[in-house]
Amino acid sequence: MSRFVPPTVTPPDRPLGVLASLRAVRRNVLEILPAIAFTQPIVTGTTGPARWHMVQSPEGMRRVFLDNAANYPKSEVMIRMLRPAVGASLFTAEGAQWRWQRQAIAPVFSARNVAALAPVMRETAERSSARIAAAKGPVEMVGEMLAATFDVICDVALSGREHFDAEAYGAAITRYFLTVGRASLLDFLKVPPWVPRPAELMGAGAVRRMHAMVGRAIAARRAQGTGRADDLLDHMLKARDPETGRRMNDRDLLHNMQFFIVAGHETTALALAWSVLLLAHDQAVQEEVAHEARTRLGERAAGPEDLPHLPQVEAVIDEAMRLYPPVGVLARDVLAEDTLHDREIRRGDTVFLNIWSLHRHRMYWQEPDAFDPSRFAPGAAEGRDRFLHLPFGAGPRICVGASFAMMQARIILATLLARHRFAPAGPLPVPVMHMTVRPEPGVTVTAIPR
Fold this sequence. Notes:
Low-confidence stretches: none
Distance between the termini: 26 Å
Number of strands: 11
């Protein structure tokens, strides 16, 4: 059977030089990944003074994410692009600073708490379905899914969104990704991160707008007092480092809330938008998955009790995140010598964890560029290396909200598929990565009531 092959990025025949790499990265990070990265487990090269290794094998991922994780902290370039928005938050911190923040935040995303958030997710799915049904003409699904997941993350983090203008906040996120979130020539030349980059000035207004909204929410909660809302902000306000007794100050709170609001809705929304695109272009698969959802749900919205009965919905989301991982490439610095495959890894090198190529690698996947959710059907992954599919990372720093994101995505997608049939209504988008892998210019579909 012929399967739908969705849009991808044609890789260059060989690694690019300094200026070509800079131009490519500023357009689309995925354009720098050479063709050999889809057939070999590791690629080594130099760009200007920098020596780097692209790793796209389960063995290499296990080594960097888990077995020798302390040797591979987040790249200073990556932190430089994130620090203006999220400071030394859970995502960027290392060592003891990371550990105590993780301990403070993890309880919010425990299985019990995630299940308790299901009513919020169900209500969001209802509202999204109603907006789609009321639309006169095509629907742009990236914007729609961002609106839906923003509702959920605001309830989880802040018990509401009264301090946020979702449209202004979303525009600020996009502006940030297109300015501060892009690599600079100074990064390629190994200029220290404390030297200002022009893009940081261009994105300063976006940072101020995002921080102002989050800051107002924190100030209102401090005035109200903790304990009334069992949400992320309450947990962070009450958190204490067990070793030092330290609590989060206003800057810690601001940066961690900023990170969770951005990451907590952007990545889930993109997984959903890509899922709808794939299903709109493969009507046979869409009908199978919609039949599963409609048989279980009828006209009602999905809840956590339905999810074990919706394996095809989960498989579609997993396959969408294989083809379009929320973050396609991560960068790590090297603290001490190591060996990956047959390569000598030296102190000062950079290791790129190339999840995009891992998920489309010719050595590990059959028809790697095709949309085939049966790869994730029950039992299909038995014997498959668990480091082959890494949409949420792995090891000690695996995304703390992974179970929350998957529950939210399954509830929303199942509800939409039970009520609407999606068909293409615009050109196929191109996957473009700056911070996250977004479909440009968007996912436009028509929605027909079932």
